[in-house]
Amino acid sequence: MEIEGHRPGSADYRRVVAALFVAGLATFALLYSTQALLPDLATAFGVSTSASTLTLSLTTLGLGFALLVAGPASELLGRTRLIHGSLAASAVVALACAVAPTWSSVLVLRFLEGVALAGLPAVATAYLREELHVSAHARAAGLYIGGTALGGMSGRLLTGAVGELAGWRWALAASGLLAVGCALAVRVLLPPSAHFVASPPGLRLVLGRTLRAVSDPALLALYGIGGCSMGMLVAVFNTLGFRLEAAPFHLGLGAASLVFLVYPLGTLSSAVSGRMADQLGRRAVLPFGCVLALVGLLLTLSHSLTAIVVGLGLLVAGFFVVHGIASGWVPARAHAGGVSAAQAASLYLFAYYLGSSVFGSVAGPAWTGAGWLGVVLLALLLLGVTVVLAGVLRRTPALVAAP
């Protein structure tokens, strides 16, 4: 029998959506808190452009691997317990990053930050599927992804502004304090799971779930879309600060971080595309995000700052359409195919953050070797793979969950 779940408009529905919006904001503010600071960190510690991107790549790498454990662990511990623990631990590590004495300690703490952050993304979409009415799944997933978009923007803007005024240490401390406030808000707002059923994850059971989660061609295509689309976005934004700092723009840290104001477009596009997907179907909406991202990438080749900002806005909007649709599609497809939704979501996010880590690091040599054109060519290649995988999804038959 289908679980009823909280319907849109109810008080508990609003609490769920608000709590996960705030949790997504905190998680992604911390994840990307160093991105606007990369030129400052490179100067402060005397490291190269490629080395400075490790503060992001190692975080996403730690997050990706931790997801492989957090997903199965949530089947035993429960969704809400993992969310609260993750937010509290990541806030503590973020404050520790602000007082790290050496470059090596910064990198170690940023890796641990990724591990601590894994609890929310590992279970968020599975929690939404379990607790909300089926009519609201894609819409709520879009709102959650919107919170992550706003978090990515807030983290970059906050650290960019504070970093220019008081230095990178105070900037990271500010992001840590933001996370503390968000963790307290989620503690108050998030309703306990009403439909979660614990399932002790024995090794054989975990391996069986993993095999089922990698045997469906549609799920594999979705994992690839997550990795390539995220790699595309991070490659662009990891090197953007260095481009805006150089001729002909010569922008300072705070001014360059203002380009992240395009991120609310991701919040809007993910929410709108979620509603469209409920009405038109995910297969019809996902390619639209690819087209938006393509137009945006091409516009960033301009030497006009206005055109670059418009291009970044379209790129962000397109990416969050793709990611919002794909991340909500994974647990729905997994559930219909008899696969653990949490396991499939963890594998999707593992691919997502592996793409971020690998291609975010590759962007450094691309920038050094070929400038902005090299970065855009890398991003176009990843977008091309995303389009091919979207075509695979259109040809893959849909599944219907058994009663």
How would you characterize the overall build of this protein?
By secondary structure, the chain is mostly helical. 80% of the residues lie in helices and 0% in strands. The protein is built from 16 helices and no strands. Helix 1 (11-31) packs parallel to helix 5, helix 1 (11-31) packs antiparallel against helix 7 and helix 11 (217-245) packs across helix 16. The chain is globular and about 55 Å long. The mean pLDDT is 87. Residues 12-396 form the Major facilitator superfamily (MFS) profile domain. It is found in: Cell membrane. It is a multi-pass membrane protein. Belongs to the major facilitator superfamily. Its main location: membrane.
Say how many strands there are. Answer: 0
Radius of gyration: 20 Å
The biggest sheet, with number of strands, parallel, antiparallel or mixed sense and barrel status, is: none
The fraction of residues in strands falls at: under 5%
Mean pLDDT: 87
What is the SS-derived class?
mainly alpha
SS summary, helix count: 16
Shape: globular
Element string (H = helix, E = strand): HHHHHHHHHHHHHHHH
Distance between the termini: 5 Å
* Proportion of helical residues: over 70%
Residue ranges: pLDDT <50 for 5 or more in a row?
Answer: none
Protein traits:
MFS_trans_sf, 403 residues, 0% strand
What's the topology here?
Blueprint: H1 11-31, H2 38-45, H3 49-52, H4 54-77, H5 79-97, H6 103-117, H7 119-131, H8 137-166, H9 168-189, H10 203-213, H11 217-245, H12 253-257, H13 264-280, H14 282-299, H15 305-336, H16 341-395
Keywords: Cell membrane, Membrane, Transmembrane, Transmembrane helix, Transport
Membrane topology: Multi-pass membrane protein
Transmembrane segments: 16-38, 50-70, 82-101, 107-128, 140-158, 170-190, 218-237, 249-272, 284-301, 307-332, 344-364, 370-393
